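Why does this matter for the project? Reviewers at the last site visit asked to see concrete outputs rather than summary tables. In response, this paragraph embeds two records directly. Each consists of the residue sequence and, immediately after it, the corresponding structure tokens. Nothing has been edited or filtered.
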Amino acid sequence: GSSKIAAFDIDGTLITTQSGRVFPKDEHDWRIIYSEVPGKLKKLVEDGFKLVLITNQAGIAKGKLTIEQFSGKVVRILTRLGVNATVFVSTAETGYFRKPRPGIWEWLETSGNSGVKVVREESFYCGDAAGREAGWTGGKKKDFSCSDRLFAENIGVKFVTPEEFFLGNK
């Protein structure tokens, strides 16, 4: 446990598809999104942050991917990144534990941090669903939603996009 939490979405934040498709064709269709990702995550650990991945994966409930397939994918991602992380996955299409609702974070604070009190002012959440409009940078499509930004707001932590955190973009 740590009082400082560095939390990240997975898809579109730490990884993207290898195929270039919007949605992965299978659990092997991924690559690290930016070369800076592994080094920045390792630095967070050195600085005393607990790494936490929080992701919505309704495809599991829809039968597009099994829990075993997704678990294997996460293990491969963390191995490639060279870090350990606590991973929280909402498999439902709705509910209190699906971002942007605060259920997963509340569970982290009460049961998933080895009894260490989280200091929200020293913690942050990084995700790609920021509600940006089309063309926010170099021909990029609009964000599919603002659920990551709302999640950070709902739990009272700083929000950053992957481009801000990993690339230093405004």
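We now turn to the second protein, recorded in exactly the same manner.
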Amino acid sequence: MTKHYLILFLFLLQNFFSYSQTTFKLNTEIEKLKTDNALKHATWSICVMSLKNDNIISEYNSNVSLVPASTLKIVTTGTALSMLGSNFKFETKLQYDGVLDSITGTLKGNLYIIGGGDPTLDSEYFKDPKDSLTTTDKWAALIKSKGIKKINGAVIGDASVFEDNIIPSQWIWSDIGNYFGAGACGLTYHDNKYSLYLKSGEAGSKTIITKIKPVIEDLQIINSVTANGKTDSAFIYGAPYSFYRTVEGTIPANKNNYEVEGSIPDPALFCAQSLTLSLKNIGINVSEKATTVRQLKETNKYISTNKNSLFTHYSPSLEKIVYWTNLKSLNLYAEHLLKYIAYKKNGIGTEMEGTQIITAFWKKKGVDVSGFYMYDGSGLSRANIITTKTQTQILRLMAKDKNFNSFYNSLPVAGKSGSLSNMCEGTFAENNMCAKSGYITLARGYAGYVKNKKGEMLCFSLLANNYECTPTEMKNKLEKLLVAISDINN
């Protein structure tokens, strides 16, 4: 061997051992999982990249498509921030048709709530706990300040900015009646959810409904919940726009006002009804029952008229909306972002258009989207599949986006916040790793960023499907990989 080749060989050998040492702990954990009996019939994947380049530092099955659960929200929220900007705000408009008599204060016409796809109207995540007024209470006061004292017409909710089908086509029956299965309506209100309060007695006994808050007009609930177990295993069943609901399962014994949350059947109608009530509470009589544009069209009673504007309500900034979307893993917010992306581009917010636009958006940026199929914006559907390589490439590109700080700051921090608040404690990952977690039945994952011991930023995705252990046990197995990723020392 010549001196030249010997130097080259030693250089490559040195770099090989150096690289092996930097990923030794991670590689060890990967090898352990390969022989883990709980993953014998499972599929799992990991991909780790540096933000400096597109090179993969470590991977296993990174080209295999897996169910991402709520880690899909990084794709939706990242796209929304990049396309709309951190300072974007949704608009909800209050308008009227007919004639407003300025002398008597009588509106001879209808009052319209024109939804703009805002998920935050009267949302608990943007409400001051000390403020007892609802959003519609505040709107009613503003309407009164415009000189309106009486409405000879109806309050009409207009949610036509989005498609009427508020539930993604691939969501399952056992989800859609519950709060986490509330769909995105063009006129969402009160997080599209209500609370059902149950009282339980001895184990095995039937429960009774003590109250429903807020009150939903015409809502009929058949209660079959019994007292049993130590956890909430009660589920509400019912279709969108149907006011017939059944609630089944179990809750712990001997509880008073045990809360189970459900999805509001018709959010736009509920918003219109809430404003009607708020108006009446301050002395403004509304002669007709609240309704919606959708209902009027279904009965051939909708008449398109010229409208006059009263005022526009603006949402908090998209930066703040994305913060809560990722920190609390809000399915409703994510679905709104998906549909609004479609509305922004095509003039109507549909699930199908939104998923296609998002996929094309990242493909144009050079992301390998083969093996990526998106059926909602939140990850609740098990039809969604993505590779860890695709997720990691998206994370890497987001780090170059001008809205990156808003995106990065929305992700839960290891040992500190959100779903990562009790993870990686006492390790280098604590306070150095931020990631979006995901969990649905037999699917768990994490995707995000970590600063290694040299202060360099890495991005990663880690997904596991169809494991044969408890969700907590799977979480603990993946946590070891997360800690090992933070120990990579490039």
